[in-house]
Design goal:
Blueprint (H helix, E strand, L loop, with lengths): L10 H6 L18 H28 L4 H29 L4 H16 L5 H22 L7 H22 L2 H28 L1
């Protein structure tokens, strides 16, 4: 019987090196986690990166612009970014079983349930949020004075305030929405007041 030729293999190699079986997918390399544990990891990683965001705003409100303070704030911001991406990875692998379709359908379902709008655009908005955070943190590590540029600062913080409020409305308990909105507006207002006083003193 004539054997089919395989590119890159001689006839002798075909005899002694049979075709390798397919490698297992990443989702099969781990034992399924208990849904309650996966949900716990998902929730607390989300709360942790939001906490880093709030801490960063609080430190900004303090108005300390010396180099040592900026380095502390930068580490808080970078930690929040890292936890945000850990949250994305945990949700994707543990909650949605490595399926982008399942992740999209979950965002669609929760959005319809919370707002009545039948759209899954929040899935892409969440990813854009993570990319923006990553880029902003990276630029800050490149230039320690990055956060002192007012246009860039308020552009990023405005987007973050809106997206975190939106995520709280969609994914969190209803009473969190009012608390989140009031807290973010208070911190931004204090930040504006501190910036105004700093400009007047100069």
């Amino acid at each position: 019987r004539r054997r089919r030729f395989q590119p890159g293999l001689t006839n002798d190699n075909v005899l002694f090196w049979p075709r390798q079986p397919p490698r297992p997918s990443l989702s099969n390399c781990f034992r399924p986690m208990d849904p309650a544990t996966a949900d716990l990891i998902d929730r607390w990683t989300a709360r942790a990166f939001v906490a880093c965001y709030v801490v960063r705003l609080g430190l900004d409100v303090a108005g300390r612009s010396d180099l040592a303070s900026q380095r502390v704030v930068r580490w808080v911001w970078t930690t929040g970014c890292a936890i945000c991406w850990i949250h994305f990875a945990a949700a994707f692998q543990l909650v949605h079983h490595g399926s982008l379709r399942e992740a999209y359908q979950h965002v669609l379902y929760v959005t319809v349930r919370s707002t009545g709008f039948e759209t899954g655009i929040g899935f892409y908005i969440n990813l854009a949020f993570g990319v923006l955070w990553l880029v902003d943190a990276g630029l800050w590590w490149r230039d320690i004075g990055w956060s002192e540029r007012r246009i860039q600062y308020w552009f990023v913080q405005g987007i973050f305030a809106f997206l975190i409020f939106q995520a709280t409305v969609v994914f969190g308990p209803r009473f969190w929405a009012g608390i989140a909105l009031a807290g973010v507006l208070l911190l931004i207002g204090l930040r504006l007041a501190v910036a105004s006083r700093t400009r007047q003193s100069c």
